[in-house]
């Protein structure tokens, strides 16, 4: 029982460091965040950081998985909702995101994966590979839903679902970049309008 309890405590503290540290790194960037800033945010001694992470790079790799695996799971659940048609699932998901940003007093988006990919993908190939794997997993989830839409007659029978999924995912990344820079929902509104037109038979 003691071993089980100690394991639970260890993972709780690791998750705390990942949650607080990834939030700091999202705001300040990889180079702007040191181990000291991470442990201060988590409220732990600096020595504890190296009990869980071999380096700042190791922390970033683990943080990417910690942040994005639950998001990928929610995305898969939303696009697999049997109560909606495949086309309706996709539109409902992105309309909900649109509503989320519209509820903000100032539309803004701080993207952990975006910050790391722009700053570190070339300098640290392991981070670049992790970012690409996460983004591809998202595209794969969308592609499966698009294929179901095609089978249901909601898309043209000759539609290239792999290409369409990549296009939508890349366009969405562009929207997030515009939200971060411009703090306007104009790009988001245009994305939703075009998405509705794309997802037609």
UniProtKB/TrEMBL annotation:
Keyword tags: DNA-binding, Transcription, Transcription regulation
Keyword Transcription regulation: yes
GO molecular function: DNA binding
HTH tetR-type domain segment(s): 11-71
Entry-linked Pfam families: TetR_C_13, TetR_N
Protein name as it appears in the record: TetR family transcriptional regulator C-terminal domain-containing protein
Residues in the DNA-binding region annotation: 34-53
InterPro entries hit by this protein: Homeodomain-like_sf, HTH_TetR, Tet_transcr_reg_TetR-rel_C_sf, TetR_C
PANTHER family per the UniProt record, alphabetical: HTH-TYPE TRANSCRIPTIONAL REPRESSOR NEMR, TRANSCRIPTIONAL REGULATORY PROTEIN
